[in-house]
Amino acid sequence: MALRSTQTGFGSVTKAVHWLMAILFATMFAIGWYMDLLPLGMEKLVWISRHKSIGVTILLLAILRIVWRLAEQTPTALGDVAWEHRAAKAAHLALYAVMLAMPLSGWLMSSAANYSVSVFGLFTLPDLVGPDKVLYEQLKFVHWALSWSIVGLVGLHVGAAFKHHFINRDATLRRMIPWAAKGN
Predict the structure, then answer these.
(1) 62 Cβ contact list (under 8 Å, min separation 6)
(2) Which domains are assigned to the chain?
(3) Which of 3, 20, 57, 180 is such that its CA lies 20 to 30 A from the CA of 67?
């Protein structure tokens, strides 16, 4: 399998980052949900630290993904419905935006709460803002709203892929699955 994408299919780097991001987003949502249920204590703090570390990983992967996407060609969209192509582009742009905004809002929120962001205990990120309780509360809402935006956008993305696969019966979904056979 080629590393780079072609006019007819996605390369292995794009596929690997796509699926790694999908796994990390699902993991982050589960961790976020779980840690919100925990009472304040050491276990909650450990899960918050893991959440932050994975969030920074997502931010770095999102930057890598965007740079990679800009540096290579994208396979030609299948189908001939113009509004679907425009909707797909808009949805992908929105996904890229939240891939950046979500971890940045978490980092800002931690800074405003006067809590550092340690990345797997290897290094600590600098604070982006000073302690600010009001800003923290605003960013907490933004972070929450972005998490549900991701759920909606991912749901739309998966729904569109299934529509292409089961209704249009084209190769849109197959060409993103690493082990799927080629073909339209």
Answers:
(1) 21, 96, 99, 100, 103
(2) 12-176 (1.20.950)
(3) 180
